[in-house]
Amino acid sequence: PLARTIAKRGFNNNQFADKVLAINVSKLEAKFENGETVDLETLAERGLAKGSFDVVKVLAGGDLTKKLTVKAHRFSRSAEEKIRQAGGTVEVLT
Question: Which residues of 16-48 are buried (b: 16+ CB within 10 A; e: fewer)?
Fold first, then answer.
């Protein structure tokens, strides 16, 4: 049948969605020292923020033992807990 040979098409609204840069806590542990501030500029300097993106989201993959001040647009709940348990602070950018 002809319907099976033609590619499916439909509503796709991805062109308006935010491009999210996801960074795991384990990468912050590897690239930053105790007491440092993590923001968009330092992420770019350390090679963690490459390309174009609209929003930075910190995810909870891995462990964190260093006290960091993390500034990002979004945080997963477990990533926020890990940062605070290590003695760090979380700041949400708008």
Answer: eeeeebebbbebbbebbeeebebbeeebeeeeb
